[in-house]
Amino acid sequence: MTVHSYTLPDRAILHLSGPDTLDFLRGLVTQSLTKLTDDQPVYSLLLTPQGKIISDFFIAKKDDDLLLECPASVAETLKKKLTLYKLRATVEIEDVSHVWTAVQMWGEEERLEKVIAEAPAFLHAYRDPRLPALGVRVLGPTQAKPALPGEVSRAEWDGHRTALGVPEFDRDFVSEQTFPMDVNMDRLNAIDYKKGCFVGQEVASRMKRKGEVRKRTLIADATAPLAIGSPVMAGESTLGEITSTAGNQGLALVRLDRLDKAGDTGIFVDGQTVSLTLPPYLED
């Protein structure tokens, strides 16, 4: 197996600095920042007070400062939200996307471990905190971007994450419309329910405590290409819809109660039979 590399074109980087940065952020985001080290960033969310996702992001340490790698489409919104919550905290928030680049790498484990071990100090090279099988995330200065092995297309990256059942912002969900459990964020290491306060905690914790998981994002397999937005049907019942695709495979946001009620009824998308399976990380 070789190593595949994909330079992510639609990512933005926010630089947070100031003496109150860590305390300020830990009271807002869903993941515990005690897990954040110089060598290992964390994956987290900022929620609305109603518990829906504003943005997901990776948080990395840069000396005494923090870097938030987030979707470019929501970077300005995220910056404004953080500024709104800042109040009297001594924190500066700057968009530095023009000088940073994010890359995803996956494939041969031995070579990936070597990438992490031999990364120069100015690069953040780390195991993807969402799911180890996703590979390695690399964040570094654009001007110092090294030559990458096995550079591939967006389609190949989508195929990799789709096969693993990992939803992605701007493809499988958008800002302020989706609960974390709908897109499996509670099982992709985005939330620590024991960390203490975060925005939207009351709603998120209640859904977990009561087991109110109404929707999940599942893997859909077909014999012909699937189309984004197509309804997933069982007889006359709409179970959900296809949210992203990679050839004959896609991800589907599905109502679990309707799926259970469908029983052995055949499942179809645009007239073709489709099988729905749980991503492996949801099976235990």
Quickly count the helices.
Answer: 6
SS-based structural class?
Answer: alpha+beta
N→C terminal distance: 28 Å
What order do the helices and strands follow?
EEHEEEHEEHEEHHEEEEHEEE
What value does the average pLDDT take? 94
User: What's the CATH architecture of the largest domain?
Assistant: 2-Layer Sandwich
Number of domains: 2
Using the CA coordinates, give the radius of gyration.
19 Å
- The oligomeric status of these chains comes to single chain
Largest sheet: 7 strands, antiparallel
- CATH superfamily membership of the largest domain: Probable tRNA modification gtpase trme, domain 1
CATH class of the largest domain: Alpha Beta
- Overall geometry: globular
Please give the order of strands in the largest beta sheet: 15-14-11-12-13-10-16
**Beta fraction:** 25-35%
Q: Which stretches are poorly predicted, pLDDT < 50 over at least 5 residues?
A: none
What do we call the CATH topology of the largest domain?
Gyrase A, domain 2
Task: Count the beta strands.
Answer: 16
| Residues in helices, as a percent range | 10-25%
Protein name: Folate-binding protein
Domain CAF17 C-terminal: 214-281
Organism: Aquisalinus flavus
Domain GCVT N-terminal: 15-107
